[in-house]
Amino acid sequence: MHRKKGQIEAEISEAIIKFEKEYMGRGPLETKTFIIHDMVLVRLKGVLTQAEHQLVNTGEENKGRDLIKQVRIALLEKGRPLLEAVVESITGCKVKSLHTDISTVTGERVILFTLDTALALKEWE
Question: I need a surface site. Which of 34, 42, 64, 76 has the fewest CB within 10 A?
Fold first, then answer.
């Protein structure tokens, strides 16, 4: 069965927002998901907490940035099975890999899932 691309992207965005709120303690201000062939790219805006903003602005920018990145990556790795399961249930495809990074300058995080196959989608209907 073919599903609409926008519907799947919205479901994934909602699931990632729920994960961020429940697992990370704070949700993003904005989330957008893009399906590109066999990849799912999730862009989250406004993910840094006030404490993380303060850490970046302490004068030791690289140290604060590195600490934030280390903690966020470690937390995401611990929650990785949950994220992969939700993406697999929505897309019907197995997740091959997950990549992520966070910017302490823009407060954005990106999460990229690569899937074992391209999704069968209908662009318009």
Answer: 34
